[in-house]
Design brief:
By secondary structure, the chain is an alpha+beta fold. The protein has a domain at 31-101: GMP Synthetase, Chain A, domain 3 (2-Layer Sandwich), CATH 3.30.300. The protein is built from five helices and three strands; from the N terminus they run H-H-H-E-E-H-H-E. The protein has a three-stranded mixed beta sheet with strand order 1-2-3. Helix 3 (34-46) crosses helix 5. The longest helix has 13 residues, at 34-46. The protein starts with 11 loop residues before the first helix and ends in a 16-residue tail after the last strand.
């Protein structure tokens, strides 16, 4: 039995993925969900905004992105037009809007009217 060499990033085997996806699409096979594709390529698509958040879901053309913080959410919203253009280059008109959500604060919420710590 012949041993196969280990697969390394940038090898020919790794680069065949997009070709297989295109061939399956041409044959009418069901496509991978857009969110899975976006999650896989998020760093490339989002560029310097990638660390600010990650895609959560796609609902009726709106890509929901969870920001890592409120400050990161502001960065994502500020760069939304550029990010949306990059997304549309990758997946076409499936993504028409971007919704940025911030993480929920952890811990108990103060009662209404109580003093903040």
């Amino acid at each position: 039995m012949t041993e196969r060499p280990p697969t390394r990033p940038g090898t020919r085997l790794e680069q065949v993925g997009p070709l297989v996806a295109a061939a399956l699409r041409d044959l009418g096979a069901p496509q991978a969900p857009t969110v899975a594709v976006l999650a896989e390529c998020w760093d490339e698509i989002a560029g310097d905004l990638a660390a600010a958040g990650s895609p959560l879901g796609l609902h009726h053309g709106t890509l929901v992105v969870l920001a890592v913080s409120a400050a990161a959410a502001t960065r994502l919203r500020y760069g939304a037009a550029t990010l949306l253009a990059r997304l549309q280059e990758r997946v076409g008109s499936e993504v028409s809007r971007l919704e940025v959500r911030t993480p929920r604060p952890s811990g108990p919420r103060p009662a209404p009217g109580s003093a903040l710590p």
